[in-house]
Amino acid sequence: MIISHRYKYLFVELPHTGSTAISAELRELYDGSKILRKHARYSDFLRIASPEEREYFVFSAVRNPLDVAVSLYYRYKTDHHGRYSAERPTVTKSDIAWFRWIQRTEADFPTYFRRAYRRPIPYDNFSREAHRRFDFVMRFENLSDDFANVLGMLGIEPKRPLPVANRTTQRTTDYATYYPPELIPRARWVFGPFMEAWGYELPPGWGRLPAPITARVAFRVIGAVRRRLATPLAWQSARNRGRIE
């Protein structure tokens, strides 16, 4: 999480959305500094924020989950920057387990997908908590232009195009090629509700959203529970001042 008291912004870093590049750029060129941990949630910030800080311009990013799944698989497969074999403090036990399983079995992406997404739980992430109420949500697919838009909204002149950082290696640019036809029904069920919520379209030939009704109901019910559990008392004062409705 990155904050600037000069420009009065807060950047909430959502994993796998280009947050490494954005946070580095903010700290290097736009008076940003680290606050809390890298992937802290907005609710964590509200617990410690002053009344003035709660009024800062808040932005983050989202990414097509079909692409996230492929990227995550290749991070495990290639031991991205040695992070999994070194068992760094920021790496979860689940990540280490997936890394070791893929290294041991040499599983391809379809095999990984069937195992990783076999439970009847639709994909979601902590964007569910508050992203809808942020001042701007960038798209990973349009990150450079969206970041420039954010700077403009803050009255900051961009100093250079956004550099690429933390790129995943050994994969093609088209995530859809990793999903053979037999995976498409499951992928639609798992990722469809999130894609629908954020306005993403399915790849050509996959059909059209909306997602299956069972997935949409599960997404709403499970998401509501997750959001309720994540909501701190600090949100109440923010609601009273109009940021959270």
Topology:
Blueprint: E1 2-4, E2 9-11, H1 19-29, E3 33-34, H2 42-48, E4 57-62, H3 65-78, H4 93-105, H5 109-116, H6 127-130, E5 136-139, H7 143-153, H8 184-197, H9 213-230, H10 234-241
Parallel strand pairs: 2-4, 4-5
Antiparallel strand pairs: 1-2, 1-3
Helix pairs in contact: 8-9
Can you put this structure into words, describing what you see?
With 245 residues, the protein is of the alpha/beta class. It has one domain (2-241). It contains 10 helices and 5 strands. β1 (2-4) and β2 (9-11) form a beta hairpin. Mean pLDDT is 86; it is low at 233-245.
Question: What labels would you give this structure?
Answer:
single chain, 245 residues, alpha/beta, five-stranded mixed beta sheet, 7% strand, disordered C terminus
Number of E-state strands? 5
SSE series: EEHEHEHHHHEHHHH
Shape: globular
First-last Cα distance? 23 Å
The level of helicity is 40-55%
Domain count, please report it: 1
Major beta-sheet overview: 5 strands, mixed
What is the percentage of strand-forming residues? 5-15%
Structural category: alpha/beta
Q: How large, in whole angstroms, is the Cα Rg?
A: 19 Å
- Nearest-integer average pLDDT: 86
- Helical region count? 10
Low-confidence stretches: 233-245
Strand line-up of the largest beta sheet: 3-1-2-4-5
